[in-house]
Write a structure and sequence with these properties.
This protein has helices at residues 23-35, 78-92, and strands spanning 5-9, 12-16, 40-41, 45-46, 51-57, 60-66. It is an alpha+beta fold. It has a domain at 5-66. It starts with a strand and ends with a helix. Residues 74-93 are annotated as: Disordered.
Length: 93
Protein backbone atom coordinates (compact mmCIF):
# COMPACT_ATOMS: atom_id res chain seq x y z
CA UNK A 1 0.00 0.00 0.00
CA UNK A 2 1.77 3.10 -1.16
CA UNK A 3 0.94 6.54 0.16
CA UNK A 4 0.04 5.53 3.73
CA UNK A 5 0.97 8.22 6.26
CA UNK A 6 0.85 7.93 10.04
CA UNK A 7 1.43 10.58 12.70
CA UNK A 8 1.10 10.70 16.50
CA UNK A 9 -0.01 13.88 18.29
CA UNK A 10 -0.94 13.93 22.01
CA UNK A 11 -1.99 10.27 22.26
CA UNK A 12 -3.79 10.44 18.89
CA UNK A 13 -2.68 8.22 16.04
CA UNK A 14 -3.79 9.47 12.65
CA UNK A 15 -3.46 7.23 9.63
CA UNK A 16 -4.10 8.43 6.08
CA UNK A 17 -3.97 6.70 2.73
CA UNK A 18 -5.84 3.47 3.43
CA UNK A 19 -8.62 2.99 0.89
CA UNK A 20 -11.44 0.46 0.90
CA UNK A 21 -13.56 -0.45 -2.11
CA UNK A 22 -16.57 -1.64 -0.11
CA UNK A 23 -18.17 -0.91 3.26
CA UNK A 24 -17.69 -4.55 4.31
CA UNK A 25 -13.91 -4.03 4.05
CA UNK A 26 -14.17 -1.01 6.38
CA UNK A 27 -16.06 -3.12 8.92
CA UNK A 28 -13.54 -5.96 8.61
CA UNK A 29 -10.61 -3.56 9.16
CA UNK A 30 -12.23 -2.11 12.30
CA UNK A 31 -13.10 -5.57 13.66
CA UNK A 32 -9.56 -6.89 13.11
CA UNK A 33 -8.00 -3.79 14.68
CA UNK A 34 -10.20 -3.83 17.79
CA UNK A 35 -10.08 -7.61 18.25
CA UNK A 36 -6.37 -7.39 19.13
CA UNK A 37 -7.19 -5.23 22.16
CA UNK A 38 -10.45 -6.98 23.16
CA UNK A 39 -12.48 -3.82 22.68
CA UNK A 40 -16.21 -3.24 22.57
CA UNK A 41 -17.52 -0.98 19.84
CA UNK A 42 -20.60 1.10 19.23
CA UNK A 43 -22.45 1.27 15.95
CA UNK A 44 -20.91 2.48 12.72
CA UNK A 45 -22.46 5.91 12.16
CA UNK A 46 -22.86 7.08 8.58
CA UNK A 47 -23.27 10.63 7.41
CA UNK A 48 -22.97 12.05 3.92
CA UNK A 49 -19.21 12.56 4.07
CA UNK A 50 -17.99 10.64 7.14
CA UNK A 51 -18.18 7.20 8.75
CA UNK A 52 -17.47 7.11 12.49
CA UNK A 53 -17.17 4.39 15.11
CA UNK A 54 -15.97 4.49 18.71
CA UNK A 55 -14.43 1.49 20.46
CA UNK A 56 -13.31 1.16 24.09
CA UNK A 57 -11.20 -1.34 25.95
CA UNK A 58 -9.16 -1.47 29.13
CA UNK A 59 -7.08 1.73 29.22
CA UNK A 60 -7.60 2.35 25.50
CA UNK A 61 -10.13 4.14 23.36
CA UNK A 62 -10.17 4.18 19.55
CA UNK A 63 -12.27 6.53 17.47
CA UNK A 64 -12.45 5.78 13.75
CA UNK A 65 -13.22 8.56 11.26
CA UNK A 66 -13.36 7.39 7.66
CA UNK A 67 -14.07 9.74 4.78
CA UNK A 68 -15.82 7.99 1.89
CA UNK A 69 -14.13 8.55 -1.43
CA UNK A 70 -15.19 6.96 -4.69
CA UNK A 71 -12.38 4.91 -6.19
CA UNK A 72 -12.51 5.41 -9.91
CA UNK A 73 -11.41 2.57 -12.20
CA UNK A 74 -8.42 3.21 -14.41
CA UNK A 75 -9.54 4.25 -17.87
CA UNK A 76 -8.27 2.14 -20.74
CA UNK A 77 -6.63 3.79 -23.69
CA UNK A 78 -8.12 3.31 -27.14
CA UNK A 79 -5.25 0.95 -28.05
CA UNK A 80 -5.99 -1.29 -25.05
CA UNK A 81 -9.68 -1.37 -25.98
CA UNK A 82 -8.84 -2.40 -29.57
CA UNK A 83 -6.51 -5.17 -28.36
CA UNK A 84 -9.14 -6.41 -25.92
CA UNK A 85 -11.83 -6.55 -28.61
CA UNK A 86 -9.45 -8.46 -30.94
CA UNK A 87 -8.73 -11.00 -28.20
CA UNK A 88 -12.44 -11.55 -27.51
CA UNK A 89 -13.16 -11.99 -31.22
CA UNK A 90 -10.32 -14.51 -31.55
CA UNK A 91 -11.49 -16.49 -28.51
CA UNK A 92 -15.04 -16.68 -29.95
CA UNK A 93 -13.75 -18.12 -33.24
Amino acid sequence: MNGIKASINENVLEVEGIKFRKLINVRKFIDETTKKYEMKCGQLNKSENLLTKQCEGENIKIYFEIKPERIKPIKKTTEEKKEESKETQQSKS
